[in-house]
Amino acid sequence: MRHKIIYRHWQPGDDDAILELLLPAEQVVENIYRNKFEGSHYEPEEIRLALVNERVVGHVWGTPCSFFIEDKCQRFVIVGAVFIAQDMRRQGIAARLMQDLHAHFQRKGYRGSILDADEVAAIRLYQKVGYQILTQEFRTQLAPNPNASHLEWAETNLKDLSAFPQLHERWTRHNFPVSCDQASIKVQQYNMGGYRVLRRGQNIIGYARWDEPSEHYPHGLICDPIVSHIDPMEVITSVQAAISAPRAWQTCEGSRYENPLRSLGCTLKPTGSVDMLLSFGTEINWSELARTLSR
Fold first, then answer.
1. Residue 79 located in a structural domain
2. How does DSSP classify residue 226?
3. pLDDT of residue 294
4. For residue range 279-288, what is the model confidence (pLDDT) as tens digits?
5. Do 148 and 239 lie in a common domain?
6. Is residue 18 located within the same domain as residue 72?
7. Which residues fall within 8 angstroms of residue 35, CB to CB, at 6 or more apart?
């Protein structure tokens, strides 16, 4: 006999029960997730739970985020930590939790819901709820080219950080989904060694996540550079001039760099990771936007 499933939003005292669901399955890091919602900025309705006999068997939460789209800043919800206890799956719990979460944000006037997934079963579930694949992640190998470029990549230093907010803001207006929130700019003093800046003369015109070869990334990893108002092929050429051996490049379907990379003969292989979108109401007009990865 099936137990009665209670669906509700988060209440004070629920955090330990949520951790009991997620921790054994290695879904979270304990010291990060413990007391995650107690005293936080989350509203209770942004955290949805399924319970059986006071045991949390399902969990999902949504983070409000703003994106610049269709010439204005609009609100979306970023969905995370969709997880159902192993013994309670295939009962529609995940779908119900997400529908309740969506209903809350739709009532508040949000434009849609965004999430990322990298498992086939999860992608199929989200499609049943109404999500569509917004873009998929690609990896390729970019060969070096010693031909000179008038653009130059350099290591990031402290004084460069002040240029990042304006570069990020320009990027948000032509690429989706990129958060408009200043807090979403991930480059800080502690991690700036993993980024490079693109200079034209003395001016910084862009930046990129730039990992050197390592055990984790044998060929390094360069993510799509955040460079607006410069021809993408010109940016790619500047990267080729800066590397001495083939480098892995991460892009996505529909990005500014996809077709230029293909035109160079690069083979773009899907990694299995996708970004998905569920619009609330009117479908989004993509005519003026390139796709990007929300991660």
1. yes
2. B
3. 60
4. 998 888 877 7
5. yes
6. yes
7. 15
What's the CA gap between 63 and 68, in Å, rounded?
17
In a shared domain, residues 34 and 100: yes
Q: What is the mean pLDDT of residues 75-87?
A: 92
> If you write DSSP's letter for every residue of 149-205 in order, what string do you get?
-SSEEEE--GGGGGGHHHHHHHHHTTEET-B--GGG----TTTGGGEEEEEETTEEE
**Cα distance between residue 10 and residue 135, in whole Å:** 31
d(CA 120, CA 125) in angstroms, rounded, equals 9
In this structure, are 155 and 227 located in the same domain? yes
Give the whole-angstrom CA distance, residue 183 versus residue 165: 10
Q: Mind spelling out the 3-state secondary structure of 58-102?
A: EEEEEEEEEEEECCEEEEEEEEEEEEECHHHCCCCHHHHHHHHHH
126 located within any domain: no
Q: Could you give the CA distance from residue 246 to residue 221 in angstroms, rounded to a whole number? A: 10
Q: Give the sign of the dihedral formed by CA 254, CA 260, CA 261, CA 263.
A: positive
3-state secondary structure of 207: strand
Mean of pLDDT values over 105-123:
94
252 in Cβ contact with 292 (< 8 Å): yes
**Residue-level length of the chain:** 295
Of 53, 54, 23, 50, the closest CA to residue 36 belongs to 23
